[in-house]
Every structure is written in structure tokens, then in C-alpha cells.
């Protein structure tokens, strides 16, 4: 079983503590919402958990069964979708899918054609990402993350730029494809995380 343990995690930028003494114990199948106002540290926590930036103090441990995963290999166990994650604008949609799945195995061995169908963007497969609307780009980011065969899924403000139909699409995708994974949602919007079994507020760790 895949697990993540966070022990007394704290992060400081200069003289300001972003969060202090945060503890988490997550196992495959858990879903957790990280809530808090703008600037509360949600995205910073996500970056620490993904290994993108280090903690100031405390520890994070990824474990698969009895094997502890070293920090340099965490990226193999996770996929993320965030507002600050950029897509290669010069690539076509088909090229983005092909490129991404050179580094991640597709969930349930789904083909690019199947993923395009679920995206609802088949007719745009040969169009450059630079020509996509912000909502279309967000769908692509979510699909790349959700359809990666990984045990840990991190989504930061997942319905950014999505219309009502897009929000429903996102929720359906999570319901269908999040079983047996750890799913973490960083959000201020209850629509995005109402399904989560666990919730923590960043303001509790200042």
C-alpha cells in the first residue's frame, strides 16, 4: 500500500512562517482537501509535498509497502495539475499527450484516442495548445494528471477557468478514476472538494 507521512512540517520564507507543525497520515484511497484563503500557503504545501521545494523543518515520507521512496524519486509516484503549470504552447494536443506519456504510464493502459474522447477535444487534436482557450487548457492539465498511472494526485484549484459543464466533467472524472489513490485538492471552492473525506485549513497551522 502507498502511504505518505508528514511529521511536524514547517515552511518559512525569510522571517514569515507559511505553516508550522503540520502532520498528515495518508494512505491509498484517501481524499483530502487543503483549504484556506489566498496566500494561506496551500500551494506552498503542495510544492513541498511534491518535492519541488524543501521544508524548513519536519519530514515527509513516501512509502510503497515496506519500501521507503527517496525524495529524488517522489516524482514517479505523483501527478499534479495547477494554475501555474504551463503546457508547451507550440505542441499540438496530440503531441502533448504523446510527450507526457513518455514519462508516465497511462492509467488503465488507456490510449491517446480514448483520452481525447474523454476530453471531448478530438476535433482539436491537431491544433496548437497556443490556440486553446483557458478552459480547454485546464481540461488538458486535469486529464494529463488524472490519466497518469500514479498513486498520488495533487490538484490545485482544479476548476480554474472551467464553465459549469467543465466542473461537472471534472467531478465525474474524479469519481471514476480516483479509487485506490491519494487525492489532494487545494481549493477555496467547496464544489471542488466536497467529496473529500478529510479536510484541513491552513490557518490552523500558522
Short key terms for the protein model shown above:
6 helices, 27% helix, four-stranded antiparallel sheet, Rossmann fold, five-stranded parallel sheet
Q: Write down the oligomeric state.
A: single chain
Any idea how many domains? 1
Q: CATH architecture, please?
A: 3-Layer(aba) Sandwich
| CATH domain class | Alpha Beta
**Low-pLDDT residue intervals, each spanning 5 or more residues:** none
Arrangement of strands in the largest sheet = 6-7-8-3-9
Main structural class: alpha/beta
How many beta-strand segments? 9
Give the count of helical stretches.
6
What would your notes on this structure say?
30% of the residues are buried. Helix 4 packs parallel to helix 5. Strand 7 (152-156), helix 5 (164-177) and strand 8 (182-186) form a beta-alpha-beta unit. The protein is globular. It is 27% helix and 28% strand. It has one domain (2-205): P-loop containing nucleotide triphosphate hydrolases (Rossmann fold, 3-Layer(aba) Sandwich), CATH 3.40.50. It is an alpha/beta fold. The chain has helices spanning 42-50, 93-100, 112-119, 134-146, 164-177, 190-193, and strands spanning 2-13, 16-27, 31-35, 57-64, 67-69, 78-81, 152-156, 182-186, 198-201. The mean pLDDT is 96.
Topology readout:
Layout: E1 2-13, E2 16-27, E3 31-35, H1 42-50, E4 57-64, E5 67-69, E6 78-81, H2 93-100, H3 112-119, H4 134-146, E7 152-156, H5 164-177, E8 182-186, H6 190-193, E9 198-201
Parallel strand pairs: 3-8, 3-9, 6-7, 7-8
Antiparallel strand pairs: 1-2, 1-4, 4-5
Helix pairs in contact: 4-5
